[in-house]
Amino acid sequence: MQQTDAEEHQFCVAAGWLGADPYQLSQPESQAIISAAEELPDAIREEVLKSAPPARLPSVTRWVKAGLEAIQNNAVSDGQWNALRDRISLPSTVGPPWQVGYQLARELRRILRLADIAFVNLDTLVNVPIPLLPAASPPAQSFDGIIGIGRGSICCYTPKSRQDSQRFLCARGLLAFLFDKS
Question: Are 14 and 33 in contact (CB under 8 A)?
Fold first, then answer.
């Protein structure tokens, strides 16, 4: 790879994210990777390519793009989520993702003085609901949904029909929004 140009290097990296040998791909497989890399936003490209089964990459790309479009058309922002975000800061967290998630959730409950409440309705945190958009079934099991985070807005796109599953996805989105200030 040291003798490749920048474009070929990016292709090789993208193929590697899929777990594929970039020099052993068929023309349609190569084109699917190139298309996905061009069509997916930088912020999620790596995660999508690392999660997508190579044979389903075109349909995964279409599903993700549909989700992003739905989120863009439905996200609302009135500044209340930003006001909540400005009140908190990221605690130091170490450990596996599920432990970090629980640590962050406990910290948020502490900050909001909700530690003793067994069930926190996310929509009541700032009296603005997190939009939950229904999605078609994803083309791969590795996709639960898409969380859209923008300027003061959060929006979730998911095929999950169980309320507890939807709530979990929205909670993940809320934690990402509140604690990732990049």
Answer: yes
